[in-house]
Design brief:
By secondary structure, the chain is of the alpha+beta class. Helix content is 15%, strand content 49%. The protein is built from one helix and seven strands, in the order H-E-E-E-E-E-E-E. The protein has a four-stranded antiparallel β-sheet, with no helix packed on it. The longest helix has 26 residues, at 4-29. 17% of the residues are buried.
Length: 168
């Protein structure tokens, strides 16, 4: 017959193996989630657009963005870090990003939100000669932080925005 210690060791080893297998299956099951977040953005008004004495451009704009990121939340999501960026191209750099807003969404109940604010930003022309009449995108980036497993990141690009041709 087997001793008590031998039987306890076999039971503990079997239990930990089954528990590890269940945890691995649970983590893999999160990969089958296909999130479908939505976002809409508009710039209803560019209040002013001017050249500063140091040569940089400066713009003040009114921004309205609404987003629904509830589909990013599963049993394994701890929180989601979100930021909104204005992105534009210059001859020197393929992509320039300006962070306009950021936030942490702690739960699914807070994943439907709106950003309605007046923003003043300085656009550096050191990466390009002139930003008048330039197209730009509003891009909503997110990083979903899981309780276990790898962090995922993605974005929604909202196109169709343009800086004015003349300073005002």
């Amino acid at each position: 017959m087997h001793s008590f210690a031998y039987r306890a060791n076999a039971l503990l080893t079997f239990s930990l193996t089954v528990l590890s297998l269940i945890c691995a299956m649970a983590s893999v099951s999160d990969n089958f989630n296909s999130p479908f977040p939505t976002s809409q953005g508009q710039v209803p008004n560019i209040n002013w657009f001017q050249k500063k004495p140091d040569g940089d451009d400066e713009v003040s704009l009114t921004l309205n963005v609404s987003a629904n990121l509830q589909s990013l939340f599963t049993w394994n999501t701890k929180q989601v870090f979100v930021f909104l960026a204005a992105e534009y191209e210059t001859p020197k750099n393929a992509i320039n990003q300006l962070s306009l807003w950021d936030g942490i969404i702690p739960s699914e109940e807070h994943a439907i939100f709106g950003i309605h604010k007046l923003i003043s930003i300085g656009l550096s022309i050191k990466s390009g000669n002139n930003l008048r009449d330039k197209d730009f995108n509003l891009t909503l980036h997110w990083h979903a932080m899981p309780k276990t497993g790898k962090m995922s990141a993605d974005k929604i690009v909202m196109t169709g925005f343009r800086l004015p041709y003349t300073y005002r």
